Amino acid sequence: MANDNEFFDKVSNVANDMADTITKTTSDLYQKGKAQVELVKMKSDIRELYIKLGVTCYAVEKGTGDDSQFAEFVERIDELNCKIDEIEAGRAADKEVKEAEKAAAKQAKQAEKSARDAQKAARSGEPIEVKFTGDKCECGENRIGSLPYCAFCGAKF
Fold first, then answer.
1. What is the pLDDT of residues 94-107, one digit of tens each?
2. R_g (Cα) of the chain, nearest Å
3. Domain locations in the chain?
4. For residues 55 and 27, is the Cβ–Cβ distance under 8 A?
5. Is the pTM of this model over 0.90?
């Protein structure tokens, strides 16, 4: 009976974790889609402002228009371009963070494997072999095996 409860608890925990992951992923996708729609709208607004600016410029050149709106159009275009730059800079930063998280996860996975291998070797009584490649990190330590990061300071090779 206790094993059944443990099994159902594990299944319940896995299901809850999956639901949380799905919810987070859905929310992230929604936010990205919303930001994309905002970008498209702002770029469309800029195009419309350029058209109005051009029409106004033509009318002023022909002597049938008023140039008082020039500053307003230019200011609004600059505001929208700044907002677009901010959104795109945020996207670039998000991408860098995700790449760093991915690299850290990969390094952690390699460290876990190394730890498991070391535990296995320790249980079997076999000596643990550490291979140095001859490469040195900026911290001065030797590179161990084919690890993409320094095992001592974490710098990337």
1. 788 788 888 888 88
2. 29
3. 2-113
4. no
5. no
